[in-house]
Amino acid sequence: MSAADPAPWTAATLLQRLAADPHSQLLLDRGRLDGTLRLARGDGWELLAELPSGAVDALQEALAATVGVGWAGRDRPWRASGGGEVAGGWVSVALSFLPGPWGGRLSVRSHGGGGSVAAWEQLALPAAEEAALRRLLQGPPGLLAVVGPSGSGKTTLLWALLRELAGPTVNAVAVADHPCPLPHVTTALARGTAGCEPGELLAALAADPPQVVATTDLADPSAVTAALAMGLQGSRVLANLAAADSVAAIGRLLQREAVPYLLSDLLRGVLASRLVRCVCAACAREVTLRSPAAAARLGLEPRGLTHRAGAGCPACGGSGYRGRRAVYEVVEVSAALAAIIADGARPDLLREQAFAAGNADLTANAAALVLAGVTTPEEAARALGRDHD
C-alpha cells in the first residue's frame, strides 16, 4: 500500500494497523484540496496516503462509526473513546478531533488490545524494579503514580498493576476514558455519555471509596484532591500521570494543588516508563558506535563501544527494529523523601534522595538495555528525550 494508492485504506484496515502496535497513532488531516493519512512510526511519521478531501471526511467518519463513536461534528474540538474488532481480537482507541479551516484533523491513538492485559512476566521488569513494585503493591494503601509521556506504555502498566490487585473478593473501580479490560473491575467511563470529567467521577467515589481505584487521568487539581482523599480513607489508588520521570511527577502533583503534607504522607511510590524499539533478531549484528552523542546521553563511554543493531530485512520492514520493550524507573517514598516533599519538594533534593538507595533511574536502565543488545544507543536516547535529566 503506497501513498499513491489510497484505495486499500478503509476503517477496518486502519484499525488492523493500529492493533499491530499497541502504542501507535494515526492522523487523518484534511487540507483545502486534499488530505494526508499518516502513521506514527518510531521517532517520526510514515505517510500512508494522500487522499482527496472528500475521502478524508468519509474515512474520518467511518473510523468513528466503526469504533462505536458517534461523529460529534467539525465545528469544535472533541474527544472520545471506543473500540473495534480486528483479526485476532479487539483494539481500543482514543479519538480526538481538532477543527480547522478546511475540515479538521482526526487523531486515533491505540490503547492496545482491549480484550487482554499484559501478564506480570510480560512486563520484563528488571529484578530490582520488580521487587520494589511488589513491595509497593503489598505495602500500606495510598497513591502509586504510573508516569510517562504519551505513548510510553503507562496505561498498559496501569492495567497490569491493577490485575495484581483486583479479584472477585476485591471492590475495584477504574476511572478511564475507555473500558477497563479486566474482570471484577467496574469501569466509570470518563467523558462518556454522561460527559463527566475524571475529577468529578473520582470525587463521587471518594464519598464511598472502594478498596482499589485505578485512573487513567490525574490531569487536574480536583482529580488529585479526590485521589488523595481516597488514599486517606484507606484505598489503594493507582493513577496515570503525564510526567517525564519520577521526580517530575512529584512536582506535577504539587502543581496540581496536592497539599504537601498530605502528599508526603500518602504517596507510596512512582513508576516511570518509556518504550524503546528492539533490535530485530533476524538481522542483528555487532556494529561500532555511530552516535557518540547518544552514548554520552546514556552515560556510556563512547570510545571503543560496540553494540547490536539491525541491518534491515523483510522481517522488520527494513527498519532494523522489531517489537518494543519498556524502560523502567521505580522510586519508593522513604521517610527522608517524604520529609523533602512536605518541605516543598526542591527538585535537586528530590532527585538526590529518590535514588539514594542505589535504585536505577531511566537513563541507567536504558543504558543497560543497550549493553544487553536489546536496543541501540540512538533508540534509547530518542526514547528518553530531552525532558529527562
Largest sheet: 7 strands, mixed
Helix content range? 25-40%
| Cα-atom radius of gyration | 22 Å
Helical element count?
13
CATH topology of the largest domain: Rossmann fold
Q: Can you tell me the CATH architecture of the largest domain?
A: 3-Layer(aba) Sandwich
Give the class from helix and strand content and strand pairing.
alpha/beta
The CATH class label of the largest domain is: Alpha Beta
| Proportion of beta-strand residues | 25-35%
Number of domain units: 2
Largest sheet, order of strands side by side?
Answer: 9-8-10-11-7-12-15
What does this structure look like?
By secondary structure, the protein is of the alpha/beta class. The protein has two domains: 11-113, Beta-Lactamase (2-Layer Sandwich); 120-278 and 305-384, P-loop containing nucleotide triphosphate hydrolases (Rossmann fold, 3-Layer(aba) Sandwich), CATH 3.40.50. It contains 13 helices and 15 strands. It has a seven-stranded mixed beta sheet with strand order 9-8-10-11-7-12-15, with helices on both faces. It has a six-stranded antiparallel beta sheet with strand order 3-2-1-6-5-4. The longest helix is centred in the N-terminal third of the chain and has 14 residues, at 53-66. It starts with 10 loop residues before the first helix and ends in a 5-residue tail after the last helix.
